Amino acid sequence: MSIVPDNGRLGLLFLGGAKRVAVGRMFEHACRERGLGCDITGYELDRHCPLAAIGDVVEGLRWSDPAIFDTFDQVTDAYGIDIVIPFVDPAVGIAARYAAMNHYGHEIFSPVSSHELATRMFDKCAAADLFEQLGLPIPATHRPGELFRPLIAKPRYGSASKGLVFIDSPKKLREVEALTDRYLIQERIDNRSEITVDCYVGVHDGCIYAVSPRVRLEVSGGESVRTLTVDDPEAVDLACHTLEATGLRGAVTVQLIRDLDSGRLMVMEINPRLGGGVVASVHAGADIPALIIGDALGEELAPLTPQPGVLVTRYLDDVVFYPEN
């Protein structure tokens, strides 16, 4: 099934996209290129957010609230929503579930994988088990009883590098091992480089249309604020192999790590959604917002080849809310 624009306009619902003004403008551009209007609505806990500069913002519920789908129905009806795009981890599974629901003849598209697969990616232990089963290269997972070596413990459901525990002694290892249900414990690679790969896999056909590696030169609050696209054929090959092996679809961000001592390139984690630094890949030629719009409309998509060496830096801007508005 494909989206049929109503009155020549597409309605987009951003979930947790409070600061994604630049990405929103890219979606607007993709619609204009097709002669379509674009109405962006944000779903946030606070409507006073930057996204209000380019669209409406609805004050919604927390992702865990059981009534959230009822509010989605209200927003969909009120704002003519056709496409639901998640920007934060908890919203991905919700978007997948909502797009799969019966909307009584009104198709809802979301550029995501199934709820089950997406949810597994946000459980680091479950994801690591899947990667091992598929034979994907990952940092070695520590097993109880193994000899001590420098390790890193990642919160099982954490994100943005928050809550990491560096294990430098047998005593610290014993402390963390007592909480194994809360952490994924892996070998620690201190001399490393990290590569982020922005990808798009057709929701309808499963073909890979965009694979754009970039490096984060500067990070603030867990988000990239200075990003450079790079020429890394090995990263492209591993990202493609990972996408094919896992069966992920839609917008996918593959995080890779390279051991600079051994040269090993490994999968660190996967975020099955648009990444915060995807703007760099779009400017480099991997126009993922355009692919999402085309996929939703049922267009025949063509693979996109990004240009390396494109540098994007992020800066602060102001959005002002007056009492009468």
Write a structural description.
The protein has 325 residues and is an alpha+beta fold. 28% of the residues lie in helices and 26% in strands. The protein contains 9 helices and 13 strands. The protein has helices spanning 21-32, 68-79, 89-100, 115-121, 124-133, 170-177, 233-246, 278-283, 288-297, and strands at 9-15, 37-44, 56-59, 83-86, 151-155, 165-167, 183-187, 192-201, 208-220, 223-229, 250-259, 265-271, 311-313. A 6-stranded antiparallel β-sheet has the order 12-11-8-9-10-13. It has a 4-stranded parallel β-sheet with strand order 3-2-1-4. A 3-stranded antiparallel β-sheet has the order 6-5-7, with helices on both faces. Strand 9 (208-220) and strand 10 (223-229) form a beta hairpin. It is globular and about 65 Å long.
